[in-house]
Structures are given as structure tokens and as C-alpha cells.
């Protein structure tokens, strides 16, 4: 599929006011508002366009799979530092459209979901250097570029990250890439959830090479990444028990194939890392140095939202049966002033409101 | 999208009405209206561009900010927000029909929290003051523009400021968690949060670097990071700038992301050395400063690798800082490069283009050609790690035509930056200075989108008007075309 074909499809939809549902591999069909609109399958617009290891960037078309991108990066000892999930195992939510090989670059950026390395390395948007966007009128727009620093014009390319396809098709994107750490090791500690949060914040304020944390069922895993000497020194300082299958475990956390994430409905609660435990049952996992906490089971939506908001965070209904998803907004509602701003921005990029309507908020 | 083109002139403001309305909402000591009081505000760090405002407001609390903005919105009066005025692109230059809104009195650090590694500060707090307040906890605020002693966090947010450590630690956009913003209509909203990934669009990314065109920030939550146990600098000299450029690429190719990676050419070291006595090799065509930080073990390991790479790239001399004092001395020359050049020339004009690192030698050769073409000298300092070049064009404002030559010289560097695959500004912002070059970097549809984004926040286009994003009329007048997606080749490229 060429970019011109994407442009033609969007122009036609704009003219006919036809809602479109943008789709890469469908690996995150479960995420956000209920799916609506005619499928615009972008998985055919694929391929790595440019990769320059010494310039630390890679550009690819939206349908390129993360697996392909990461394989090419690995040949040069580099990685996507935000460690995005591929969700290849559970990319079959919509049975009418079979899932492909796992997440695409376009879907990864649109969803803005990062993995275990998020707290140390940054979010998806932190690595976006530029995008070629096809907006809701079928205009091709280039924002950002391929250099590390660029403050000319508003930073639209980062705005697009996490916008769930509501502002345009990310036809092509350029990402900052980083070298893989030389050494990596995983330590395990037995401790309760509160103690895990306390320790993670205490360690986080120290110059330690932490790159991921995961607590589940009384066991805290801590990943150290960096120079071999730094990882060794930190291991001696922190104690804990060395694990043997660290790498596999982190993939299972990233992909949510770990048993901690098995139950539904699954709530994703982002909090200030130091927030005390919420008065909500069903805590099943803690990540990101205490800033990401997962809850599963039959939880009252209003109660978990109120608790998260009171603690300075927000709660997302992450994975749930359709019967619940049609009753509960996926994301924490916006304050009125912010909602009005969102609507105006949506109009800038998609005046006819045809792109992924309702996927982010029901109002647009 | 509506066709928004802010070419219609702002209507002349009735100064008397404006001043009497402002007097009603601000105490006397928070409002300046006399010419001699307004004079210090007529420019920012880019002194070649000046304009006198109608009034300067110095509010002391958020309520007053809201009142000032509401009043200006009602009267249709432009508002230019201002921090310390250290900006280098004229972003804080006043509007002749408008007011300057100085956030200088918003200078309190409201909270520093060790465990959550964050600080809540007012926008008028100086960049360095945040790190000083965090130091007792072993933490600091990572973005460190060279002006960090004076520049404010609010200004850093407006410009998305960088610094010498941003290759490893990121720009302002990577280190701000939350903003409290007042809209031109006087409405308060908060974006981002102390919790990661706030719901909705990433408005933080949009606001940071928006050069005061979208809203006025009244509070900022910044991320703090643990201070590394140790930092050391490797200083290497090269006989050839191309060799030094290759060494930068080789360091990255070896999988090293240094804490800082800076280059200075011979004219720059020559200007700096008598001033700072940093111990620079004055015979070298270029020197590289490469900082490594972390645990002592990590630093030792990285320094050894960096040394091997630099030797392999033909460095003629390599020195490693042996003490904190020596490390700071190595850096002092780089950080003082601008004032040092200021000592050897009556005036200098600092550019801020970014280019892919591998095009560095080409760019420096082209700049040497431009020195001959315009008959002006130029010293080059370079955030080599992230491709951000700061050529310092030396001129004399008192010589007729000299400034015009410097301006044309600068424009040529910026336009070549775009042609080489880079950007007209890496960290100083577009402001008023690079407004014409925006027409070269962006095509009409992107510029129209920027104007529409602006209108979504500020429909009457009163916040910092005529800055950052050029009107389409202005681009037409400038007559220089955006090279659209490489379909046209830069006609002069082969020469370089």
C-alpha cells in the first residue's frame, strides 16, 4: 500500500463523511474505546525507509512490524529504548480480521504504550523525532525531522504519539534509537506491595543503573542495565537473589503473558510513584518504580477512578469484556477546559471527525 | 481547518484605556508605564531586535496573571510573556502595541521531593536554583543551558531548552512532568501530571517549545534525577575538523552515549583560552570534550573505551580530567565561549542550526566559504553529540552594513542546515529572528496547521503575535521556497 493510496482513502472518507477505523496489526484492538468505522488497513504500508546507527535514528512506514525494526536494530547493537509491547500473542480480539505478526510501528506510536524500561528511558513520545502525517482531510504533513534537536514549529510529532489515530494516519515516523546496554541482570526480593513501593522510590533517588521493576504476589524483580562494572557494583550493593530467566520474564511482563495479567477486567493505574496503596482490592502487579499499578477483578469503575484521581493519578480500563467496555469510558474523563481544547485540536486535524471516532474519548 | 493566516495587523491599542484598566487590577509596583522603566524590556538576549512595549506587568500571583490576560483579551492587546530575557531569538521582544507580562516575581520553589524525584517551581525560578535546591537530596535538574545561572524555568519551557548534557538526559520536554497554564482568556488548566502518561493528547509536548504562543505558564513540576557519583571529561585534539567529526560518529557507533559531547574549532578555542585558561590545545583544528558519568567503575570502563575510539580516529592528544576542579576547568571554556567571543569582537551573532552529525565537515567548510563571501569571521562551538551547531558570527554594529552582512550570513547557515537534513533551530527557538527561515523549513500545509493549532488555544492571536510561525504572506514576500520532501535539490549543495 502506498502513501498515495492512504491519501486517496482518507480523501474519499472525508468527502463522504465515512468514519474510518485505522488498523495496523490489530494487536491493540482491545485498547481504548469500542471499535467503530470502516477498517483502513495500514499493515501494507511497510518497510524501513532509513536507518543510520551513528545518527541514532530509524525511519519506517507505519505498517512495519516492531519485530522487524527491533531485529534490524539488534544487528547494530541498538534498541527501541521504550521497550514497546508487541502483543503478538493476543492480537486476535477482532475475529473477523485475523491478527498479523504483532504490533506495527504506527500502532505502537498511536497507542503510546511503553514497556518495562519506561521509567528509566522515557515514554514513546520521548523517542519520536518526526512524523509524516496524513490528516483527516488527506493532507500530507511533515513534522519534526531526523535530528535529535529541533524546536522549529510546534512539536506536533510528539502530540501525535498516544493520540490513538484520532488526529491522522502516521504514514511514516522517525524514532531516536539507543545502544543496548552492555550488561543486564535481574534481582529478586521477597516483599509485600507497600514495601516494594517504598524500596523502589528509595532506590530510584540513588544513582543506580535500574532499568525495570516488577512486583507480583510478594516478589519484586529488579532489572539492572548498563556498563558491566556498574551492574556488578549495584548488584553487590542491593543484595537480593540473582534470577536465571530474567530476560524471558521481562518479555512476559512487556507482553502481559505473565500470569499477573491473566484476570479481567484489568485496570491500569498510573500514579505518582510514591502514592500510598489505593483503597481498592485486586492489586495484581506494580511496575515503573511504583508509578504503574495494575488491578484486576470485579472493581467498581467509579471507585477506582476516584481513588486514582485523589492520589494524583488516573485509571484506565485496560482490558475488559465488551459488556463492560460499552458502559465505562476507557480513560479518565478530562476536565471541561481540557476537553474543549481537545475538541478544538481534533477539529484542526480532522474537521469531519472521521478518524477513529470515540477511540480516545466518546466526545470526538 | 479554517484558513488562518495571521497577516491582519493588530489594531492600534488605546494606551490610556489599557493603562487605566491595568491600574485597576495591579498594584502600582507591579506595573511599569514610563519610558525609562520600559527601556530594559525592549529586547531579550538578541539585542539586534528591539521594540518598546506600551506597558510591563509584573504580577505577583496567579490571580493577577488571569486578570491581566482577561483584560488584554477583552481589549485585543498583544501579550508577550517574559522570563529572564536571556533568550537568543527575540522571542521575548515586546510588541509595539502590546504589554510585556514578566513572570520574574514568580520566583519561589514550592516543593522539592526526594522520593518522587520531582520539584514544583514557579516559572520565574532560575534553572540553576532548581538544581541547587535539589542538591541536598543528591538530585539535580538535568537540562543545563549555558545561561543556567540566569535563565528561568518558564523560559526553558517556552523554548524547550537543551544544554550540554541533553544527548543523554534529554531536553526540557523530557524533564517536565506537569504545567499549570493560564489561557489568553484567563482560563486555568493543568496538563501532564506527577503520574506518567496523563490521559488525552500529549499537550505537554505541544506547550513545551511553543515560545509563549499558546498560554502563560504559572507553575511547573520538573523531574529530578540522581546526581551521578562521578563525572570525568576526556579532552581530545585533532588536526582536522573532519577527523573530529568522524570521532563523534565513532563514539556513538561504539555504543556509547556520553553525558556530554562537545566540539570547538580553532577560532573558538583561540577566543576562549586567554579568557578562561582552560588548557586547550591552541594548535588543534578542533577539540572534543567527552564527558562520562556514573559509578566510578562505570566511568573508568567508559573512559577507557572512549580513549581507544579517539586514538583510533587519529586524536593527536588526549587528556582526562583528574579532579573535579580540572573537569570544571575543561568545561569552563566551552560554557564561556559566547562571552569569550564577545571580548574579541564588538558584536557577535549566535546561530543555532542542527544537522546530521555526519554532515559536520561539509557544514564547516561551507561556513569557511561564507566567511570569505561576507568578509566576517566566525567561531564554531558545537553540541556535537546531538548535531546542534552554534556558529558565532563576529561583526561590528557601528559599521554601516555589517549587521546586514551578519544577518545574511546567519540566514545562509540556517538554510544550509535545512538542506543538509537538519533544522533551523535546535534549542534557541524561532522567535522573531528565524521567522523567515521557517518558510524554508516548512511548506504551506504545515504552516497552516501551526496557525490552526495556535487558533485552538488563542483565537484572537494575541499571545506573542508575529513570532515563531510566519504568516503565509511573509513567506511569499521572502520568496524562498521550502524544498518539499527532497523533490528539489539544494542548488548549491555540490559546491560544499
TrEMBL record, chain A:
<keyword id="KW-0274">FAD</keyword>
<dbReference type="InterPro" id="IPR016171">
    <property type="entry name" value="Vanillyl_alc_oxidase_C-sub2"/>
</dbReference>
<keyword id="KW-0285">Flavoprotein</keyword>
<dbReference type="InterPro" id="IPR006094">
    <property type="entry name" value="Oxid_FAD_bind_N"/>
</dbReference>
<dbReference type="InterPro" id="IPR016166">
    <property type="entry name" value="FAD-bd_PCMH"/>
</dbReference>
<dbReference type="GO" id="GO:0016491">
    <property type="term" value="F:oxidoreductase activity"/>
</dbReference>
<dbReference type="InterPro" id="IPR016169">
    <property type="entry name" value="FAD-bd_PCMH_sub2"/>
</dbReference>
<dbReference type="GO" id="GO:0071949">
    <property type="term" value="F:FAD binding"/>
</dbReference>
<dbReference type="Pfam" id="PF02913">
    <property type="entry name" value="FAD-oxidase_C"/>
</dbReference>
<dbReference type="InterPro" id="IPR016164">
    <property type="entry name" value="FAD-linked_Oxase-like_C"/>
</dbReference>
<dbReference type="Pfam" id="PF01565">
    <property type="entry name" value="FAD_binding_4"/>
</dbReference>
<feature type="domain" description="FAD-binding PCMH-type">
    <location>
        <begin position="1"/>
        <end position="180"/>
    </location>
</feature>
<dbReference type="InterPro" id="IPR036318">
    <property type="entry name" value="FAD-bd_PCMH-like_sf"/>
</dbReference>
<keyword id="KW-0560">Oxidoreductase</keyword>
<protein>
    <submittedName>
        <fullName>Glycolate oxidase FAD binding subunit</fullName>
    </submittedName>
</protein>
<dbReference type="InterPro" id="IPR004113">
    <property type="entry name" value="FAD-bd_oxidored_4_C"/>
</dbReference>
TrEMBL record, chain B:
<keyword id="KW-0274">FAD</keyword>
<dbReference type="InterPro" id="IPR036318">
    <property type="entry name" value="FAD-bd_PCMH-like_sf"/>
</dbReference>
<dbReference type="InterPro" id="IPR051914">
    <property type="entry name" value="FAD-linked_OxidoTrans_Type4"/>
</dbReference>
<dbReference type="InterPro" id="IPR016164">
    <property type="entry name" value="FAD-linked_Oxase-like_C"/>
</dbReference>
<dbReference type="InterPro" id="IPR016166">
    <property type="entry name" value="FAD-bd_PCMH"/>
</dbReference>
<dbReference type="InterPro" id="IPR016171">
    <property type="entry name" value="Vanillyl_alc_oxidase_C-sub2"/>
</dbReference>
<keyword id="KW-0285">Flavoprotein</keyword>
<dbReference type="InterPro" id="IPR016167">
    <property type="entry name" value="FAD-bd_PCMH_sub1"/>
</dbReference>
<dbReference type="InterPro" id="IPR006094">
    <property type="entry name" value="Oxid_FAD_bind_N"/>
</dbReference>
<keyword id="KW-0560">Oxidoreductase</keyword>
<protein>
    <submittedName>
        <fullName>Glycolate oxidase</fullName>
    </submittedName>
</protein>
<feature type="domain" description="FAD-binding PCMH-type">
    <location>
        <begin position="49"/>
        <end position="227"/>
    </location>
</feature>
<dbReference type="Pfam" id="PF01565">
    <property type="entry name" value="FAD_binding_4"/>
</dbReference>
<dbReference type="InterPro" id="IPR004113">
    <property type="entry name" value="FAD-bd_oxidored_4_C"/>
</dbReference>
<dbReference type="InterPro" id="IPR016169">
    <property type="entry name" value="FAD-bd_PCMH_sub2"/>
</dbReference>
<dbReference type="GO" id="GO:0071949">
    <property type="term" value="F:FAD binding"/>
</dbReference>
<dbReference type="Pfam" id="PF02913">
    <property type="entry name" value="FAD-oxidase_C"/>
</dbReference>
<dbReference type="GO" id="GO:0016491">
    <property type="term" value="F:oxidoreductase activity"/>
</dbReference>
Amino acid at each position: 500500500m502506498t502513501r498515495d493510496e492512504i491519501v486517496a482513502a482518507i480523501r474519499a472518507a472525508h468527502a463522504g463523511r465515512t468514519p474510518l477505523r485505522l488498523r495496523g496489526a490489530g494487536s491493540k484492538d482491545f485498547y481504548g474505546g469500542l471499535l467503530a468505522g470502516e477498517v483502513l488497513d495500514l499493515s501494507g504500508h511497510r518497510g524501513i525507509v532509513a536507518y543510520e546507527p551513528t545518527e541514532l535514528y530509524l525511519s519506517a512506514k507505519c505498517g512495519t512490524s516492531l519485530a522487524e525494526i527491533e531485529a534490524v536494530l539488534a544487528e547494530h547493537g541498538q534498541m527501541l529504548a521504550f521497550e514497546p509491547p508487541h502483543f503478538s500473542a493476543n492480537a486476535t480480539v477482532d475475529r473477523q480480521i485475523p491478527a498479523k505478526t504483532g504490533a506495527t510501528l504506527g500502532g505502537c506510536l498511536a497507542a503510546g504504550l511503553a514497556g518495562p524500561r519506561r521509567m528509566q528511558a522515557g515514554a514513546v513520545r520521548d523517542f519520536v523525532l518526526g512524523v509524516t502525517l496524513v490528516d483527516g482531510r488527506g493532507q500530507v504533513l511533515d513534522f519534526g525531522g531526523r535530528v535529535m534537536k529541533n524546536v522549529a514549529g510546534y512539536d506536533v510529532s510528539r502530540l501525535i504519539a498516544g493520540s490513538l489515530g484520532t488526529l491522522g494516519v502516521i504514514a511514516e515516523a522517525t524514532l531516536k534509537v539507543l545502544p543496548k546496554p552492555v550488561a543486564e541482570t535481574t534481582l529478586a526480593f521477597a516483599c509485600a506491595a507497600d514495601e516494594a513501593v517504598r524500596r523502589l522510590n528509595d532506590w530510584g533517588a540513588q544513582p543506580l543503573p535500574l532499568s525495570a521493576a516488577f512486583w507480583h504476589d510478594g516478589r519484586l524483580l529488579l532489572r539492572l542495565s548498563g556498563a558491566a562494572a556498574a551492574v556488578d557494583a549495584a548488584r553487590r550493593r542491593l543484595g537480593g537473589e540473582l534470577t536465571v530467566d530474567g530476560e524471558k520474564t521481562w518479555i512476559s511482563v512487556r507482553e502481559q503473558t505473565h500470569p499477573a495479567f491473566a484476570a479481567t477486567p484489568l485496570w491500569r493505574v498510573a500514579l505518582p510513584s510514591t502514592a500510598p496503596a489505593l483503597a481498592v482490592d485486586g492489586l495484581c502487579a506494580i511496575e515503573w518504580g511504583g508509578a504503574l499499578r495494575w488491578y484486576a477483578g470485579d472493581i467498581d469503575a467509579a471507585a477506582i477512578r476516584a481513588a486514582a484521581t485523589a492520589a494524583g493519578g488516573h485509571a484506565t480500563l485496560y482490558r475488559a469484556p465488551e459488556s463492560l467496555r460499552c458502559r465505562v469510558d476507557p480513560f479518565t474523563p478530562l476536565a471541561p477546559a481540557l476537553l474543549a481544547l481537545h475538541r478544538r485540536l481534533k477539529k484542526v486535524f480532522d474537521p469531519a471527525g472521521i478518524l477513529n471516532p470515540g477511540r480516545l474519548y466518546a466526545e470526538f | 481547518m479554517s484558513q488562518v493566516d495571521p497577516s491582519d495587523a493588530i489594531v492600534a491599542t488605546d494606551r490610556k484605556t489599557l493603562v487605566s484598566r491595568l491600574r485597576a487590577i495591579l498594584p502600582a509596583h507591579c506595573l511599569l508605564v514610563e519610558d525609562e522603566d520600559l527601556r530594559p524590556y525592549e529586547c531579550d538576549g538578541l539585542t539586534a531586535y528591539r521594540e518598546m512595549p506600551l506597558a510591563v506587568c509584573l504580577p505577583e500571583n496567579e490571580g493577577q496573571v488571569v486578570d491581566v490576560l482577561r483584560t488584554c483579551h477583552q481589549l485585543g492587546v498583544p501579550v508577550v510573556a517574559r522570563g529572564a530575557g536571556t533568550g537568543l531569538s527575540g522571542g521575548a521582544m515586546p510588541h509595539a502595541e502590546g504589554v510585556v507580562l514578566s513572570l520574574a516575581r514568580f520566583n519561589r520553589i514550592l516543593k522539592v521531593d526526594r522520593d518522587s524525584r520531582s520539584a514544583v517551581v514557579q516559572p520565574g525560578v532560575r534553572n540553576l536554583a532548581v538544581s541547587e535546591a535539589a542538591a541536598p537530596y543528591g538530585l539535580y535538574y538535568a537540562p543545563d543551558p549555558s545561561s543556567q545561572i540566569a535563565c528561568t524555568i518558564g523560559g526553558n519551557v517556552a523554548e524547550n531548552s537543551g544544554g550540554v548534557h541533553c544527548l543523554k538526559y534529554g531536553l526540557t520536554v523530557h524533564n517536565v512532568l506537569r504545567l499549570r497554564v493560564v489561557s489568553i482568556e484567563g482560563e486555568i488548566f493543568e496538563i501532564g501530571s506527577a503520574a506518567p502518561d496523563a490521559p488525552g493528547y500529549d499537550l505537554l509536548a505541544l506547550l513545551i517549545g511553543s515560545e509563549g504562543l499558546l498560554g502563560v505558564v504559572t507553575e511547573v513540576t520538573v523531574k529530578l534525577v540522581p546526581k551521578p557519583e562521578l563525572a570525568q571529561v576526556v579532552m581530545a585534539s585533532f588536526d582536522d575538523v573532519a577527523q573530529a567529526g568522524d570521532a563523534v560518529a565513532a563514539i556513538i557507533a561504539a555504543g556509547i552515549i556520553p553525558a556530554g559531547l562537545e566540539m570547538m574549532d580553532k577560532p573558538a578555542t583561540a577566543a576562549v583560552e586567554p579568557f578562561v585558561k582552560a588548557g586547550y590545545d591552541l594548535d588543534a583544528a578542533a577539540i572534543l570534550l567527552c564527558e562520562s558519568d556514573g559509578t566510578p567503575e562505570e566511568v573508568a570502563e567508559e573512559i577507557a573505551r572512549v580513549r581507544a575510539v579517539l586514538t583510533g580516529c587519529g586524536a593527536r592528544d588526549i587528556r582526562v580530567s583528574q579532579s573535579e576542579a580540572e573537569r570544571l576547568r575543561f568545561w569552563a571554556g566551552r560554557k564561556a565561549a559566547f562571552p569569550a567571543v564577545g571580548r574579541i569582537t564588538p558584536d557577535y551573532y549566535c546561530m543555532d542550526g542542527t544537522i546530521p552529525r555526519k554532515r559536520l565537515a561539509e557544514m564547516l567548510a561551507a561556513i569557511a566559504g561564507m566567511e570569505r563571501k561576507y568578509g566576517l569571521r566566525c567561531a564554531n562551538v558545537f553540541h556535537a553529540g546531538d548535531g546542534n551547531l552554534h556558529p558565532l558570527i563576529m561583526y561590528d554594529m557601528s559599521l554601516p552594513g555589517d549587521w546586514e552582512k551578519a544577518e545574511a550570513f546567519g540566514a545562509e547557515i540556517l538554510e544550509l542546515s535545512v538542506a543538509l537534513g537538519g533544522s533551523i533551530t535546535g534549542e534557541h527557538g524561532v522567535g522573531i529572528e528565524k521567522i523567515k527561515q521557517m518558510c524554508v523549513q516548512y511548506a504551506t500545509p504545515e504552516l497552516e496547521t501551526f496557525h490552526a493549532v495556535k487558533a485552538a488555544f488563542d483565537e484572537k492571536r494575541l499571545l506573542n503575535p508575529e513570532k515563531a510561525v510566519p504568516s503565509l504572506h511573509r513567506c511569499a514576500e521572502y520568496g524562498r521556497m521550502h524544498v518539499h520532501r527532497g523533490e528539489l535539490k539544494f542548488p548549491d549543495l555540490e559546491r560544499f
